[in-house]
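G., the chain you wanted modeled:
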Amino acid sequence: MRNTLLLHDFTSKPDPIEDINKSLKAIQQQLLSEIAYKQDVISAKDKEIATLKEELRCSHEAIEILEKKIQEVERKNEGNKQLNKKLINEVVRRQQDIEWYKRTYERRSFLGMLKEKVLKR
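Predicted structure as tokens:
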């Protein structure tokens, strides 16, 4: 009977090693769940990074296209400027011609007009 009492006393006391093991398992579970959460966060961030990289690539392509269009527009504008200068010069020459005709035919003396008509016949 004495043996049973000793055995009974031994089993009724909490075992410190078991308590430590339970605490370690609880800590391990907590760490594993935290690791799983952080891996999910990392995966989400990786997806976000991939999306942003794709958007950045698309933005660079759009910028290149727009730069090419800007160069084309600038080239056309330069051509238009040259054409405008040419047309302005042409208008100035035509205005000079008109002024010459005005001076010649509208402001000429009466005797000069008679002389010209006589010479034409």
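The chain has one domain: 15-120.

Shout if anything looks off.
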